Amino acid sequence: MARISVTVLLLFSMMLICQLQVKAGASTQQFFKHDSKVLQKSIVERVNSDATAGWKADMSPRFLNYTVGQFKHLLGLKPTPKSILESTPVITHPPHLKLPTHFDARTAWPQCATIGRILGQS
């Protein structure tokens, strides 16, 4: 169970870092470079300057020197072959697109019997 929690926490952290990178003004191209740092001071400053954030960010000593490539390896990411990446279309959406404030896949697709089932992660 602890192994699942750590994995979920790391995956959530990577998603959060990616979102914060974009909000902090870092280009997504720079963020996804294999050798760029996962944690950046600009992200911490941006979060901490927002009084409505509801939390305080800090530079975790554990991940301070991790690169994107090292963090992906830590998460168990398997490299995607270049041929697949090159043939995958890029879909963009306008920045003013309104996204829902809440979304639950179980209610959006109730006909899917497995969507709410969590499989063994060991």
Automatic annotation (TrEMBL):
Signal peptide range in chain numbering: 1-24
Swiss-Prot/TrEMBL keywords: Disulfide bond, Hydrolase, Protease, Signal, Thiol protease
Keyword Glycoprotein: no
Superkingdom assignment: Eukaryota
Domain Peptidase C1A propeptide per the UniProt entry, residue ranges: 39-81
GO biological process terms, semicolon-separated: proteolysis
GO molecular function, one term: cysteine-type endopeptidase activity
SUPFAM superfamilies xref list: Cysteine proteinases
Pfam families: Propeptide_C1
KW Protease (keyword) present: yes
Protein name: OLC1v1030744C1
Species of origin: Oldenlandia corymbosa var. corymbosa
